[in-house]
Structure formats: C-alpha cells, structure tokens
Amino acid sequence: MKLVTAMLAGASVLTAVPAFAAEITINSFGGAYEEAHRKCVIDPFTAETGADVKIVTAYSADAFAQLRAQKDAPQYDVIHFSGGQEIVGAKEGLLAPIDAAKLSNAADLYPFAGAKMAEGEGPAYQIAAIGLLYNSDELSEAPSNWADLMEPALAEGLVLTDISNTYGLFGFLMLNQVAGGDLDNIQPGLDAVKAMLENGAFVVSKSPEIQQAFAQGGTVVAPYASDYAYTLRKAGLPIKFQQGAEGTPASYITANLVAGRDNQDLALKFIDIELSPEAQACFAEALRYTPTNSKTELPDEVAADVAYGEEGVASLLRFDPEVIEANRADWVIEWNKAIAQ
C-alpha cells in the first residue's frame, strides 16, 4: 500500500471546494502503470483540489474481492477494473450510478465508453486494443487481417499466447470468430490453432516470452496488445502494431464510483480528470493505451500504436466479460488439450 501526499494548495482551495474531503482511496495496478497514474491523474487532481490520494496497489480481481469483503464498510472511493468486474459490481450494488451531467468530460466520450454509467458501470477511461504485433524489418507489409494468421506461410513465424493470459484469450477469441465460432462454440478456433501449430507456430505463456521470441529471430507476428508493441520497441526491437480488419478486441479499463462513501463529489472529480483529453493523452504517451475521449489529440508516432480517432475505435469489440468468466476454466481445459496434440 502506498500513500501519495501533497501540500494543500492553500486555504483558498479548501474554501472553493468545502464539500470535498481531504483524501480519497483508489486502487492502481503498480509498476509503470502506477507511475503514469500519478503523473497523468493523481498529481493534477491533488494540485486542483488540495486533496490527497491513498493508493492501494491491487489488480482487478484482488480489488474486486476486497470491494466485496468491504461491502458493509467500503474503503475505496474510486476503483479501477480491467476485467469487466464493474458489470458484476454494479449488479451487486457495490458501485454507484454516475450522473453524466456531473462529469464535464462525459459528453466527449465515445458512446461505448460511458454507455452504462447510469446503471453503475463506470466509464472506460482507456482501452487496451488487441491486434497484430509484427516485425517491420521482416515483413514489408503489415498483416492486415486476422485471417492472415491462418495462412501456412506465416505459421513458422507466428507466436500465440496461452489463453490463461487475458490478452492471449482475446486474441484467440478473435481468431475463433474469424474461423466461424462464437462464445458458445470455440471449436473452430481450437481447430485453427491446431492447424497453426502443425504448420510451425508455437505458444508462449507470458509477455516476456513474446519479447524473447522476437529478439531471437524467426518470429514475425504475434497477436497481442498495442501497449506491448511499444514496450518491445523501447527494448530495441522493430515491432509495430496493426489493427486487424475483422475487428479489434478491446480490454476496457474502467473507473468506478464506489457506493456507500460520503465523499462522492471528490471521487467524481477524480474520475472526471481520468476522462479528460489531457490525462488520456498522457496515458497514451506513457503506455500506449487507446483514449476514450474523442477530443484527445495524439502525435503521429503515438497514434500509430493505438486505436485512434473515430475510424480507429469503430472496429473495437468487447467480448462479454460475464460469458468469459463463466466459461474460462472450461475453455482452458479444451485449449490445453488442443495444444498438447
């Protein structure tokens, strides 16, 4: 657990916002993400309100478990999820509905990002877009379709990620969809993967193994998240990101208002800053997450790594998190059988 402290911005700030408490509690995801969170949101929030931010470093599943355990006496004011936990949290009454009129940036969000705020599902303030990472030194043209990955000619240079990894799962579900499957039937995707492996593709479990595969040579393409292409380039590898023409699976990162807390005005202010074009441009620059505010402006080199603008976000699709959660364990068993053959 970490605590961000800041000098109060003076009596004038406290006078201007008398309803605001002196501190809010949020979760963040640690490491580089938490560093960006501080720079892009927390520091500007503290400067504007004079309030401190107490950070609990907790990923989505752990944060949601804590929220449930604290149901009668919640400790978080704003809670962030990347796995769709806001859908269940809203249904269980753990999250409070958000009035879009109380957020100055809500009107500028792409419609998908804030569609269910009134039902308690917090807005998406950034997106991890899943597409095709490719070696630009080895491929003269970017692979433009998910179906390209099924071509035998690409198989020996293809790296797939195990579906125990969320990004790997989203990539597989997209391949399954292209192969004719859906969330009720993943067999077409499993058959496609078996064919890829027979033709020379291989499977890794974690993102560092993708980097190793590209660094060792021979790997030319891997379905994965846009932010990781940037990580690989920072490591000196010539890796670029390309959205597949059939669609771009999206992992929503959401900011949610916790029910039952007495400083919701301050919490809403924090969420509003996360939705601002300035904060989202900052996150995109630092980590290459896709902005959800339509007024966010990015330089060309950053825009190339994300799903940017009206055209870029038009192909985003979200596989139902509730269906995924209900079936994931069974899918992993079937996946393991398929890749073992």
UniProtKB/TrEMBL annotation:
The keyword Transport does not apply. The keyword Nucleus does not apply. GO terms for biological process: thiamine transport. Keywords: Periplasm, Signal. InterPro entries: SBP (IPR006059). Residues 1-21 form the signal peptide. Pfam families: SBP_bac_8 (PF13416). One of its GO terms (cellular component) is outer membrane-bounded periplasmic space. GO terms for molecular function: thiamine binding; thiamine pyrophosphate binding. This is Spermidine/putrescine ABC transporter periplasmic substrate-binding protein. It comes from Martelella mediterranea DSM 17316. The lineage of its organism: Bacteria, Pseudomonadati, Pseudomonadota, Alphaproteobacteria, Hyphomicrobiales.
